[in-house]
Amino acid sequence: MDAFASILSAEMAKKKSATAPKSTSTDTTAATKSDGTSKNGGSKYVRRADIEKARQEQYLADQARLESERAERALKKRKADEEAAAERERQLEKRQRLRDEKEKARLQKEQEEEEERKRKLREKTGATGDTDEDDESKKDGTGLMDESAAVRKLRELNEPIRLFGESNAQRMKRIHRLTGVRKATPPPLSGGELLIDPQNVAKDPSAWPIGVTMVGIHERSAREKLHEKGKSAHIMSDEATRKYLQSIKRCLNFAQTRWPPEDPMQIMG
Asked: Which segments constitute the Prp18 domain (predicted)?
C-alpha cells in the first residue's frame, strides 16, 4: 500500500511539472496580444488608409532618394565632361604651340642656311652686291664685266652710266637687254591683213560640223552635211566608232555615279 501511494505521488508530480511550462507560454502569448492591441489603439485591426498612407510615404522617400542620386550622378558626369573638354583644349593648344615652334625653327634654320650660303658665295666671288642678282647676271653672261668696262659700254650705247638706286648686277642686266639678241617673233600684222573672207570661215575638213550652227558661223547646216553624197558627216554613222563612244559613255556614267564630282556642273548627261 505504501509502495502504491509513493508511485501515485510521483506520477502526479510529473504531470504537474509538465503542465507548468504550458501555462507560462499561454500567459506570455496573452500578454503579447494585449500589448499589440494596446499599441493599435485598443483594436486588433489595422485600417487600409493607414497602410496606403505608409506606402505612399515610403514611395515618396524612395523617389526623393533616387532623384538625389540621379542629380549627383549627372553633376559628376558634367564635371567629368568639362574636365575632358578642358584637357582636349589644352592638348590642342599644346600641339598647335609645338607645331608653330617647329615651323618657326624650320624657317629660322632655312634662313640661316640661306644666309650662310650667300656669305660663302660672297667670299668665293668677292662680290658686294646681291648674290641672286649676281647669279642671274652670270647666267646672262654679263657678270664677267667689271665696272669700268660696263661704264665704257654704256657710253658707247649712249645710255646713262648709272640709274638712281641701280646696283652693279642691275647695270649688267641693262647692258644685256640693250646688247642681247632678241628672240625671233612674227612680224605684226596690219588691220587689213587680219581680215578674212567670211565665206571661207565655215569650211571644216572634219567629219562633223564643229561650232555654233544657229548664228551663221557655218556655211551649211549639219543636216545638209549629213546627207552629203559620198561623205560621212556624222560621227555616229560608223558602227565601230558608235560602239567605242557608247562604251566610253557607259564608263563615264558609271564613274560619275560611283564617284560624283564636287562641282555639279561637271556631271555629264
From this structure: 206-260
> 85: Cβ–Cβ under 8 A, 6 or more apart, which residues?
none
Average pLDDT over residues 98-104: 91
Quote the number of domains for the chain: 3
Tell me whether residue 133 is in a domain.
no
Does residue 202 carry a pLDDT above 90?
Answer: no
Long-range contacts of 232-237 (CB under 8 A, 24+ apart): 232/207, 233/207, 233/208, 233/209, 234/207, 234/208, 235/207, 235/208
Judge whether 156 lies within some domain.
Answer: yes
User: Pick from 162, 158, 179, 182: which is nearest to 171 by CA?
Assistant: 162
Quote the CA–CA distance of 64 and 138 in Å, as a whole number. Answer: 91
Residue 76 within a domain: yes
> What pTM, to 2 d.p., does this model score?
0.27
Residue 9 parent element (H or E): helix 2-39
Which domain range does residue 249 map to?
Answer: 220-260
Contact partners, residue 159, CB within 8 Å, separation at least 6: 174, 178
C-alpha span between 119 and 77 (Å, rounded) = 62
pLDDT-derived band at 199 (thresholds 50, 70, 90) equals: low
Number of other CB atoms surrounding residue 121 within 10 Å: 14
Q: Are 168 and 150 in contact (CB under 8 A)?
A: yes
